[in-house]
Amino acid sequence: MHPTLLSLVALLAACVGVHAQTLVNGQIFTNGLAIVDAPAPNSPMHAGSVTQVAIDISGDGHLDQSASIPGSDKSTRFDSLEIYLVSYQTRLNLTVSSGPDLLTREQGSTVKHLDYNVSTCIPAGSYNLTFYEASHIDDQAFFSITAYPLTVMNDHPTDACTNGTNTLQDFPQLSSAPPQSPWLDGTSIATQPLPTATGNGAATLTSVSSGFGLAASYALGLGLLPILL
Hints:
By secondary structure, the protein is mainly β. The chain has helices at about 5-10, 100-105, 225-229, and strands at about 15, 20-25, 25-30, 35-40, 45, 50-55, 75-85, 90-95, 110-115, 125-135, 140-155, 175, 190-195, 195, 205.
């Protein structure tokens, strides 16, 4: 194992696992700064078609756009944001977006859009759309893992997937957590925790909170986020 990865694992050893995301008025507040507008939880993804992912990186207008640019000096900012499609039922971990592309596209827009081509190699089953986010909140570094369920529909799967595949890690994974998303702090809006698909394919509810892993702002630059999946 890479020595830096060992250090990150040691830092995260006392931290909790993947936390529940929060659904508010149709928006999914992740365990970090990102807010997902699409796709909706439990949406079907059809093999051979495109699924659009839309992410609000402004905290519903609370965060300056410069805070989403990697290398920003803002006290509350994104350091990295990556997305993976993970299934413990079909034993797949597929890259949806990695590296700085997602945060740097559509400059000037508070919502980032990504068209994900659902390959015909992806077998039908229960999946989690999983967000790995390294961020700072008030100059404190965090690393969050947020997952919510989707379903892949595929009547005629082709050969096994070979492009964009990653090692499937044990569930749950570790991350540290502030009490809740900073964009929900002090609000009285009714929130709803969402289930995630566990290793046996069952849906379970976890506590409503948000979180990142300490010192994980280094992970993207070292190429470690895909390894942590």
